[in-house]
Write a structure and sequence with these properties.
alpha+beta; six-stranded mixed β-sheet; AP_endonuc_1; 14 strands; Deoxyribonuclease I, Chain A; 20% helix
């Protein structure tokens, strides 16, 4: 099974740029979009032409903001958010067999202290929810834009960003807690300490051209799926957004 996650930074904009054409050439079982910035009635026709059997979306109440979408070729029970009061369209939770697959656009905390507190509450509530699911014996996959780089190796200028939301100690400690709970950062599991591999670049100062970036988009899996992990990757060759698609391959039917 091939699963891909991509913060498209505007679904309508990326369709206007023909930024989804590459999807037609690949065999993808699950595709999770974040930051779609569209309500259901605004979803472009091109999305329905990608050939997926099922389409689900969770849009923010606020127009042109946030939102997630999942395209998949398998049946699942879909929930929007069971652990957080969410009017920003941040979560789609898919349940099938013993699996739970989350497509999440985690909050950004850079605006001000209030938004940082909002982000940290989201993190804390989600971690508690995951702990409950693990106790139930679920096999869990988490994908999305986590909006935090974990280690110094995960961004170009770690020292310059020590006091920037997205690389604050409290945010990085949350990823530590997630891993201690038993989750695996799939990219690091496959590629170890490989350097200069990023998933987001600022639009300013030709950052992507110079590969001045951050790895803030992830696939995490619970340790009971470790033996099924076959590959993890970042598709730096795909353009159209300030993020690159990230993905994994799992040996599951």
């Amino acid at each position: 099974m091939k699963l891909i996650s991509w913060n498209v930074n505007g679904l309508r904009a990326i369709c206007d740029k023909n930024g989804l054409d590459w999807i037609l050439k690949e065999k993808i079982d699950f595709l999770g979009f974040q930051e779609i910035k569209a309500h259901k009635e605004q979803i472009p026709k091109k999305i329905y032409e990608l050939g997926f059997k099922h389409l689900y979306s969770n849009s923010a109440q606020r127009a042109g903001y946030s939102g997630v979408m999942s395209l998949c070729n398998f049946e699942s029970e879909v929930r929007e958010c069971d652990f957080f009061e969410d009017d920003e369209g941040r979560v789609l939770e898919h349940r099938f067999k013993n699996f739970i697959l989350f497509n999440i656009y985690f909050p950004n905390g850079q605006k001000d202290e209030q938004r940082l507190n909002f982000k940290m509450k989201f993190y804390t509530d989600f971690l508690s929810y995951l702990e409950k699911l693990l106790k139930e014996g679920k096999e869990i996959i988490i994908c999305g834009d986590v909006n935090t780089a974990h280690k110094e190796i995960d961004l170009t200028h770690p020292k310059a960003n020590q006091n920037t939301s997205g690389f604050l100690p409290i945010e990085r400690a949350w990823i530590d807690s997630l891993l201690k709970l038993g989750f695996i950062d799939t990219f690091r599991e496959i590629h170890g300490t490989i350097k200069e591999k990023y998933s987001w670049w600022s639009y300013r100062m030709k950052a992507r051209e110079r590969n001045v970036g951050w790895r803030i988009d992830y696939f995490f899996i619970s340790k009971n799926l470790k033996s099924k992990l076959k590959d993890a990757f970042i598709r730096e060759d795909i353009f159209g957004s300030d993020h690159a698609p990230v993905g994994i391959e799992l040996d599951i039917d």
